[in-house]
Amino acid sequence: ILALSMSSQSAKQTTDQYLKIEAELLAKSGTEYALLAISGHEVNTTNGCLNHIDIKYPTSGTNYTHDINISIMYIGNSLPAGCTQLGTDIVTADSNRTVIIDTIVSTNPTIATEPIRIHRRTIQKP
């Protein structure tokens, strides 16, 4: 019974470790994807700003392993209404439209035995 218990516990730890490492990689990839999406999004009064991105991974099918939520906050002036702004007192033009990206990756509660949640915050100039 002890050997059976130890082998099932080892399999659970291996699965949880795999899901955690995958979540860390998805947090980095999600941040890079957000930068790409911001670069391709035309900011104007019609389109507004890109404030939030939600992704299920893998995207095919209904059985996803990770939920990726990306929040984007802008620092700068002359941004249209509807942009999530943290500050408008930017002095230099090079710093205008700097973004703070919060990427949160969490496992699907139906797949993981232990909930895994990874948070990554970066400041970028797209």
Structural class per helix/strand content?
alpha+beta
Low-confidence segments, ≥5 residues, pLDDT <50? none
Query: What is the overall shape?
Result: elongated
**CA gyration radius, whole angstroms:** 19 Å
SS elements, strand count:
5
Q: State the helicity in percent bands.
A: 25-40%
Query: What's the main sheet like?
Result: 5 strands, mixed
Give, in order, the helices and strands.
Answer: HEEEEE
Task: Please count the helical segments.
Answer: 1
Oligomer: single chain
**What average pLDDT do the residues reach?**
84
Describe this protein's structure:
This protein is of the alpha+beta class. It contains one helix and five strands. It has one helix at 2-40; strands spanning 52-57, 66-75, 85-87, 98-107, 117-124. Strands 1, 2, 3, 4 and 5 form a five-stranded mixed β-sheet that branches. A hairpin with an 8-residue loop joins strand 1 (52-57) and strand 2. The longest helix has 39 residues, at 2-40. The protein is elongated, with a radius of gyration of 19 Å. The model has no long low-confidence stretch (mean pLDDT 84).
Key words describing this protein structure:
126 residues, alpha+beta, 5-stranded mixed beta sheet, 5 strands, 31% helix
Helix-strand blueprint:
Layout: H1 2-40, E1 52-57, E2 66-75, E3 85-87, E4 98-107, E5 117-124
Parallel strand pairs: 2-3
Antiparallel strand pairs: 1-2, 2-4, 4-5
Quick recap:
With 126 residues, the chain is α+β, with helices and mostly antiparallel strands.
